[in-house]
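Before the break, one more example. Copy the sequence into your notebook; we will annotate it together after we see the structure.
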Amino acid sequence: MKINETIFDTLSVIWIEKLHSQMISWIIETLYKNWEYDEISFILRELFKFKWELKYSNFLVGTEIKNIDVYIEVDSRIFIIENKIKSSEHSNQTSKYIEKLKIEKESISIFPCFLTLIWEKAINNNWKNVSYLDLENIFNSINKKSFDNSRIVFEYYLKTLKNINNTFSDFISNHTKYLHVFNDWGKTKYSKLNEIYNKTVNNSIYIKKYQLETIFQKAFLHKIVKKLNLTENNSYHISETHWMWIIQISFNIPIKRNWDKEYSYWFQLQWNTIKFNLSNDDYSNSRSTEINDKLIEEFLFFFNTSIEWNKYNIEWEEFGLNPIKTKAYISLSKKIWEDLYLKSVKEISSFLNKYLDFLNKQWLNNINKK
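Here is what the structure looks like once it is written out:
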């Protein structure tokens, strides 16, 4: 699919969060200056999901106020947007922002919105989760005449949102058309530009040109996680290492044995490798010297003593014990398909589920076992 690039594309700024935050702020401010209060109310209701009427007794909109990407104040209510187009939440930002605002504005109601390209959820459940596709649909519903002489800027931004969302939607619906997303992660920008120079811009070239491989990988892994047999005892985390994303599934209650410290089991998919881990819950302060022969023996015992492992068609002898490095962490790993991303989401999730089902049963059988 050919992409008609806009001025925002040409300037290579479409993946800079500040651009989108500034555009959201500019659109709302322009509507306010043109007395288009109904249009602003529509935008805010769609983003923040409320039904009451706004009176505009006071109004303020801006970016990077109090470390918040988009800050809007209307009728003594605060609406805030945390914008994540190519990155993820870190350092528990969503909770910290709310806590800080409540201290500074204790008598004012706060309404938060978490805006992402790949449908991620905020860590703090009080935030409304909104996608860039939602944003495109909301802005497409606004009367373009409201922007007078700056209408062309607004229309270019709408086309830019369309380019972004169409590329992402096509990838997520058929990832096997975009195998370079999984194979180009180690290439430099120079190398990728050499491959696409003077070629007609389509979705694949758009991804290469703006280096979207990592965030698209993450979206693909989120799609896999939705198909996994996670139980109430599981939680998951998707993190990045060396330009690659990892799915890490935990078993939420630490194992307590006759050990000096608490340890937890983990199940992990990293590229074409699956791992089973046992780590000290205070991992960052742990030392490899805490791992003794007895701990290793019990870790291996956890996997090798089940009489039901044949039921799950799991061949444990294919797993190797990895060298222990600097922390209190033991892991077994096994290479799986070299062509993992040629598989469908259903094939990958079914494969992972046989391990996850087995591990959940083993974990429940072993928890707090002496």
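Residues 65 and 71 are 6 Å apart (CA to CA). The first helix runs from residue 7 to 10. Try to locate both features in your own notes.
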